[in-house]
Amino acid sequence: MRQTNVRQSMLRQTMLRQTTLRQTMMRYTMTAGLAATIGVAGSAAYFSPWFWRRYRMNRIRRELAKNRVLALTYDDGPSDGLTPQILDLLQRHNARGTFFMLGRSAQRHPQIADRVVEEGHDIGCHSDQHLNAWKALPWEAVADIDAGYERLSPWIQPDAMFRPPYGKMTLPTYLSIRRRGAPVWWWTIDSGDTRDVLPSPSQVAERLRKDGGGIVLMHDLDRTQQRNDFVLELTAALLNVAKRESFKVMTLREMCQ
Predict the structure, then answer these.
(1) Are strands 122-125 and 248-249 parallel, antiparallel or unpaired?
(2) Is 19 helix (H, G, I), strand (E, B) or coil?
(3) Which of 2, 23, 180, 186 has the least CB density, counted as fewest CB within 10 Å?
(4) From CA 84, how far away is CA 119, in angstroms rounded?
(5) Is residue 138 domain-shared with residue 166, that is, in the same domain?
(6) Pick from 153, 152, 130, 143: which is nearest to 173 by CA?
(7) Is the pTM of this model over 0.90?
(8) How many CB atoms lie within 10 A of CB 157?
């Protein structure tokens, strides 16, 4: 009789331990699932400007084709080598472009920034040190944007247009720009001037023709002679397409008016 009671007690204890283990595992699974859900939701919110970019640029792409508009844009300058050559070329074609400058570069070449303004082109902010918001700490990326506006203040207003470095924004940088009331501009055609293997200018120009217009991304920082020549040749090719196809060549600010 005593052995039977002992066995029953041991059985009850085993069942109790198993029940406790199952409950613990269920709580752990629910906690892990909740944490994963929060993590995914948090990541989606943090990188949510990517979805806004797609929506905004798809709408703008349709407007560009409808109105047959070409916007020439140049990032990462000004430089004392390539930027003046671009300005000379635009002047010969009686065309204007939009220059998204780095604060550090404008401070290094203020006379070039002055000339951009004097000749009727637009200037936008491209940050100061060109930090990638997807890789930098949130406060560092926001501080880089603020520093860019500060160092570009001789040429732009606090709510001047903005183009994010590498085209990347996060929720903190998006909110920083929204507080300024600054419009954000990306591009619809990448010139490919940063790729390891450069495309031919005619390929990019043909893309413009097929799209019926576009915002073309180029860079006016000084690099190799080959890349500098590519940007100049492409600019000329795009302007020739615009002339043949009767596109309007406009700055981004003019597009908003």
Answers:
(1) unpaired
(2) helix
(3) 2
(4) 11
(5) yes
(6) 143
(7) no
(8) 13
